[in-house]
Write a structure and sequence with these properties.
4 helices, 32% helix, Split_barrel_FMN-bd, Deazaflavin-dependent nitroreductase
Length: 146
């Protein structure tokens, strides 16, 4: 995984654009730092702009549920997509080579989040490090069928 502090905003946007293009060209597979990582593309509507937004995110299937994490690679603020889904939890997701599908996201309350995040951190040392890098509680969202 990648440390967001290594990128300027423009570099991060370019990095994401390249990963999105690779994802869409290769049936959901992305190499480099995401080789072997389960990724999805999250389609949201900008909370302020109302414009469509697309975000490549790692996801975790745990006990029959799918989760995404608002880590921002350990930054002290949530990533922009978190504000988007809080404003409009109705999203679309792309997983693998499948066409975008309607979905809904639900922020986990702490009592649910903590054991789920513990499992995510067990599976991915990067996410454990992201939590260690910030004082904020990194939010976890369940991705549900619409």
């Amino acid at each position: 995984m990648t440390n967001a502090s290594d990128f300027s905003s423009a570099q991060e946007q370019d990095f994401n654009r390249r990963n999105i293009a690779e994802f869409q060209a290769n049936g959901g597979k992305v190499g480099g730092p995401f080789d072997g990582v389960d990724l999805l593309l999250l389609h949201t509507v900008g909370a302020k702009s109302g414009q469509p937004r697309l975000h490549p995110l790692a996801y975790f299937d745990i006990d029959g549920a799918r989760y995404i994490v608002g880590s921002a690679a350990g930054r002290d603020a949530d990533p922009a997509w978190v504000a988007n889904v809080r404003a409009n939890p109705e999203v679309r997701i792309e997983v693998g080579g499948a066409a975008p599908a309607a979905a809904r996201v639900r922020k986990l309350p702490d009592a649910e989040r903590n054991p789920v995040f513990a499992e995510i951190a067990r599976r991915s040392s990067a996410f454990a490090a992201y939590q260690d890098a910030t004082d904020r509680v990194i939010p976890v969202f369940e991705v549900l069928p619409a």
